[in-house]
Amino acid sequence: MAVAWFYVSVLALSSLGMICILFTTYWMWSWHGGFAWNGTKLTFNYHPVLMVAGMVVFYSAASLVYRLPQSWMGSKLPWKIAHAALHLVAFILTVLGLVAVFKYHNKAKIANLYSLHSWLGITTVFLFTCQWSLGFATFLLPWASMQLRSLLKPVHVFFGASIFSLAIASVISGINEKLFFSLKNATKPYSSLPGEAVFANTTGMLVVIFGLLVLYILQASSWKRPEAGITTERQSLLHERE
């Protein structure tokens, strides 16, 4: 029953993550004209979609790999590879999202990195880059000693959750900033809550809910991989299923 409940939770969380991506895509398509890689506003529209997909959904998927029941037993190497690979996908999507916004800003002669949202976002990406590089070098490559890995693991876990939290904050501030720029004329000000504002605010709330659920799963001790040499009820259930 515990394993079945876990899979139901993962399915629900995955569905919510996909909804966040689809809602962001629909927002950019319906209210901002769609997508094109030509340096115009249509290029910018890739930015929110790619950042939500990369820094929120794929990043969380990578972080939750070790919560899968199959990872509770046997070698950790396949799960380390999956963890690193999903983070790499998240990183690639994030870089493309940054390229999109810089490409648009440079063509439109708009200053880069002047807002709090941009400062928060670029800090998040910088920390993510350091986190992935250090994690790859320390936990995936075979040179590091067990003592070094044990020393760095709590730091790695802390920054993993912190970076994800910063990513959620960056997305929320980005949604708000986009609405302030878009809804500033007299016919449909942001304060009157036109359809775009309601939809974008709803998307932001879904991202927050998704983020809180991910953080809950990451912190819940009952969902963590058991320590080596300790047989738990979850492992027994897995053996019974086999």
What does this structure look like?
By secondary structure, this protein is mainly alpha-helical. It has a single domain, classed as Four Helix Bundle (Hemerythrin (Met), subunit A) (Up-down Bundle). It contains 8 helices and no strands. It has helices spanning 2-32, 41-44, 46-63, 77-107, 116-140, 146-182, 195-219, 233-241. The longest helix has 37 residues, at 146-182. The chain starts with a helix and ends with a helix. The relative contact order is 0.14. Pfam families: Cytochrom_B561. It is a multi-pass membrane protein. It is found in: Late endosome membrane; Lysosome membrane. Its cofactor is heme b. Keywords: Electron transport, Endosome, Glycoprotein, Heme, Iron, Lysosome, Membrane, Metal-binding, Oxidoreductase, Translocase, Transmembrane, Transmembrane helix, Transport.
Task: Write the SSE topology.
Layout: H1 2-32, H2 41-44, H3 46-63, H4 77-107, H5 116-140, H6 146-182, H7 195-219, H8 233-241
Helix pairs in contact: 1-3, 1-7, 3-4, 3-6, 3-7, 4-5, 5-6, 6-7
InterPro entries: CYB561/CYBRD1-like, Cyt_b561/ferric_Rdtase_TM
Subunit structure: Homodimer.
Enzyme class: translocase
User: Which series of helices and strands comes N to C?
Assistant: HHHHHHHH
The major sheet is characterized as: none
Low-confidence stretches: 237-242
How many strands in all? 0
- Highest CATH level, the class: Mainly Alpha
Query: How many helices?
Result: 8
Approximately what portion of the residues adopt beta-strand conformation? under 5%
CATH level-3 fold name: Four Helix Bundle (Hemerythrin (Met), subunit A)
Subcellular location: Late endosome membrane; Lysosome membrane
Protein name: Lysosomal membrane ascorbate-dependent ferrireductase CYB561A3
InterPro entries: CYB561/CYBRD1-like, Cyt_b561/ferric_Rdtase_TM
Keywords: Electron transport, Endosome, Glycoprotein, Heme, Iron, Lysosome, Membrane, Metal-binding, Oxidoreductase, Translocase, Transmembrane, Transmembrane helix, Transport
